[in-house]
Amino acid sequence: MKKISFIGTGVMGRSMIKNLMKDAYDVTIYNRTKDKALELIEMGALWKDSIKECVKDTDIIITIIGCPKDVEEVYFGSEGILENIKEGTVVIDMTTTSPTLSIKIYEEAKKRKIYALDAPVSGGDVGAKNGTLSIMVGGDKEVFEENKSIFESMGTNIIYEGKAGSGQHTKMANQIAIAGAVSGVCEAIAYGKAQGLDTKLMLDSISEGAAGSWQMKNMGPRMLEGDFNPGFYIKHFIKDMHIAKEEYESAHIAKEICSDVFENNKNRSKLEMLDIVLKMYEQLSEDGMDDLGTQELLKYYL
Hints:
By secondary structure, this protein is an alpha/beta fold. Helix content is 50%, strand content 13%. It is globular.
């Protein structure tokens, strides 16, 4: 079995590590806050006090941390990953981060004869706990194939998306779609409440039809129960939506693809739904709700 070092023991990472350990992988862990790793240490994960120590003499390094600036520091700092690992190591960043940064990690790793994959996930805390995450992987296909069994410990829908950065670009498309889906669930609940419907019965009725979605089935019940604990933080979703906008604009996709579609309205936003939902979440952030779950969007409507 390959030795795995895992950096990031938050809401997602904690459950992913547990599933790796269930499949008999030896996992060495590091997190900025040790308290968040105590349960894993009790279960047998080996704690290290620094990234440098955590990644020493390992085969696979997995990271799932906060924001692009955190990823940059963890990979490129003098005490970070790339400066302190041996040739042939595989680094897998499962953070949702900038595709541009993922390409930078891949190119720098390649210079050092290190292999890099970008592999963001979707499925929230439920998917992480159940080992049913969707995993979108970019990088060299042969490296993906050689390490697919590791992904299979954490997810069920595991797809190789293409060259470096492709996993992150796919995740951006995922986040754009979620923005519309979660706001749609909120609006349906708001409408149901305004009409005096039994909103649970209403959701049960429509969730199995054409309106059904993962967000409706998983986040809808949490909304109705007043459970706004984070499966995915508002602050992280805001971060993702900004990355999607920046990548979209920097690639000139709007100019190249949408100019004909919107030829009569040149100033129209090319990611309109994303823009609208982003503004909603930024309002919640301004109201101090950054550390609640994305289902908190319901409060924008009620």
